[in-house]
Write a structure and sequence with these properties.
Helix content is about 65%, strand content about 0%. By secondary structure, the protein is mostly helical. The termini are far apart.
Length: about 90
Amino acid sequence: MTELLIIKTTNANKLKTFLAKNHIEHQIIYNEPLDKKTSKKDKLREYIETKSKENIFADYGEAIKDKEREKEIALWDQADEEDEEELSKQYGE
C-alpha cells in the first residue's frame, strides 16, 4: 500500500538518511524549506546586527580622522608653547 505522508520537521536530512539506511522505499514529491516566521525579536536582532556592522566601519573612519585631529592639535599646542617661549625671551618675562 502506498501512502502520502506529509511531515514538517527541522531534521529532514536525518529522516532522509534513516529511510535510506533502512532501505525503505520512498519518493520525495515536494522538497522546499518552509519559511520560518520571523518574530519581532528576530527582526530586531537582524536590524541590530546590520547596524552594528555598518557602525564598525563608520566609527573606524571617524577614529582615523580623530587620530589625525589629535596629531594636528598636538602640533598647534607645540607651536603655541614655542611662541610663548620666544615671546618670554624677547620681553624678559
